């Protein structure tokens, strides 16, 4: 016999979570701290293909419960930029399959998928650079970033900036690449915020580190 009561309870719970998300002006859940891990519900919400539902799913899922191929499929389905970003940052970065996916996605011909690989590469540059060929990354950025599609360009620019910020021996080259390519040089930046233009970003963060 179908558990109609359980289905109704799940439906009310889902509606409440989505309502909280849609009322949130910041784009984040207003009651995130009260949410508990609910992997089954997360999968159901993801399957709706609704952006708000998928954002909730990413906050209540258990990242280590996803298989490698499942995460790959989810990324390829996640065409909304916020869903894409939350999936990478809140789920994939906590997965045991992170490095395998980083390598595969970075080499993917789809620029949106490749941008996820570069986002994970930026994370490694900053936190676990051992084993990365940083000069080779700079070669690739120098050759490809200028003409890359927007989302891929943005992710590659992050890697360039992180190399310059975290690796003093490569800082001069990172600054030179950024100055020559001029990617995001004219990006509108609010007062008191750091420009995403790599040379400005690198210099600002290095200056802060020196003052710390």
Give the helices and strands, then pairings:
Elements (H helix, E strand, L loop, with lengths): L3 H20 L15 H9 L3 H10 L7 H10 L3 H11 L6 H9 L4 H17 L6 H11 L5 H17 L4 H11 L16 H14 L1
Structure explained in plain terms:
- The chain has 212 residues and is mostly helical.
- It has helices at 4-23, 39-47, 51-60, 68-77, 81-91, 98-106, 111-127, 134-144, 150-166, 171-181, 198-211.
- Helix 3 packs parallel to helix 5, helix 7 runs parallel beside helix 9 (150-166) and helix 9 runs antiparallel to helix 10.
- The radius of gyration is 20 Å and the shape is elongated.
Indicate the proportion of strand residues. Answer: under 5%
End-to-end separation in angstroms reads 64 Å
Number of helices: 11
Runs in which pLDDT lies below 50 for 5 or more consecutive residues are 1-11, 20-30
State the order of secondary-structure elements, H for helix, E for strand. Answer: HHHHHHHHHHH
Determine Rg (CA atoms, Å): 20 Å
Shape: elongated
Q: Which oligomerization state do the chains in this entry correspond to?
A: single chain
Structural class designation: mainly alpha
Please, what is the average pLDDT?
89
Beta strands, count? 0
Helix content: 55-70%
Largest sheet: none
Tags for this model:
212 residues; mainly alpha; 11 helices; disordered N terminus
Brief summary:
The protein has 212 residues and is mainly α. The protein has helices spanning 4-23, 39-47, 51-60, 68-77, 81-91, 98-106, 111-127, 134-144, 150-166, 171-181, 198-211.
């Amino acid at each position: 016999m179908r558990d109609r009561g359980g289905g109704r309870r799940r439906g009310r719970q889902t509606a409440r979570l989505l309502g909280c998300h849609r009322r949130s002006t910041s784009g984040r859940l207003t009651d995130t701290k009260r949410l508990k891990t609910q992997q089954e519900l997360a999968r159901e919400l993801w399957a709706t293909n609704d952006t708000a539902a998928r954002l909730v799913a990413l906050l209540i899922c258990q990242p280590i419960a996803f298989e490698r191929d499942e995460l790959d499929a989810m990324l390829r389905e996640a065409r909304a930029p916020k869903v894409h970003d939350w999936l990478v940052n809140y789920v994939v970065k906590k997965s045991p399959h992170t490095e395998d996916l980083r390598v595969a996605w970075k080499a993917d011909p789809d620029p949106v998928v490749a941008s996820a690989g570069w986002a994970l590469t930026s994370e490694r540059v900053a936190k676990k650079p051992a084993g990365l060929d940083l000069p080779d990354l700079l070669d690739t950025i120098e050759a490809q970033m200028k003409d890359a599609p927007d989302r891929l360009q943005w992710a590659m620019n992050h890697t360039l900036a992180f190399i310059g910020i975290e690796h003093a021996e490569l800082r001069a080259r990172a600054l030179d690449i950024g100055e020559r390519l001029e990617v995001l040089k004219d990006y509108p930046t609010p007062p008191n915020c750091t420009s995403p233009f790599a040379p400005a970003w690198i210099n600002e963060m290095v200056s802060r580190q020196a003052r710390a």
